[in-house]
Design a protein that fits this description.
By secondary structure, the protein is of the alpha/beta class. The protein folds into two domains: 2-120 and 273-303, Quinone Oxidoreductase, Chain A, domain 1 (Alpha-Beta Complex); 124-248, 3-Layer(aba) Sandwich (Rossmann fold). The chain contains ten helices and 16 strands. The protein is globular and about 55 Å long.
Length: 306
Amino acid sequence: MKAIRVNEWGKAVQLEDVPQPTPADDEVLVRVHAASINPFDAAVVAGYVAFMAAVPMTVGTDFAGEVVEAGKDVTHVKPGDEVYGLSILHSGTFAEYTTPKAHEVALKPRSLDYVQAAAIPLAATAAWQTLFDTAQLKNGERLLIQGVGGSVGTYALQFAKSAGAYVYGTDIPERRDLVNGMGLDCYVNHKQERVQDIVRDVDAVLDLVGGDRVQESYSVLRRGGRYVGTLALEMPQEEPERLGIHSYGFGAQPKAELLAKFADLVDTGQLRVIVNRTFPLEQAAEAMDFRGKTPVPGKVVLTIIP
């Protein structure tokens, strides 16, 4: 089968012919129709997760496609089902076939095609788990999302508004109209405005940017407030303890039940999915480069098997 591979950390990905995988008892063989690109995939190629993986490996996390075969321990999907999901450092998805674990796959939203469905799994999972499992966001609380116009940010915004939160958000001007249309309460143009001049004493911050945004986020949290950063699994604790706040790192945990929830939200009109553009599998390197540079919101998706 055709697959996008990384053979050396930090080097360009390559389209190669590799053997089709065989599913284990707790896995599903999926014929991949589409796979979206996440910042995490670029981080994998760059070698930032070399302590968790080894090269050569097939790249990719999100997928949408059709079940070809299900292992004997898999009961919630069967051959012929249209599914979607995420496989984190297990079975790369930028390929014609992938073998996610049972808990990494669910029936895709009925109302979406494969390209749109592939734009959901990792970003929506990260958004949900950071807000509700880690930050414990509650109705009536005030939340700041750093990078609200990105893929995780737009899902987090929708989830937070549905939960009854007041949401501030920072991002570039090109994404302002989109997030305002999704119900953002207060947009901050980070290129022209100081967050500290507009945002004060929020209950929680979801930081999807990192760098100098960490200290900036700390400065606008109330005492006892919660900061969640998605660029590290753990955060240093000395400064948060001095400030009287809580600071958490994050790593997404795939759950079939959560994927099923997202599908229901989409099919009932409660969750919007934004796609920027598509590329064919053989242009994966160009697609990954485009994703890192485009100011236009929405996921970049690889089309694989029609």
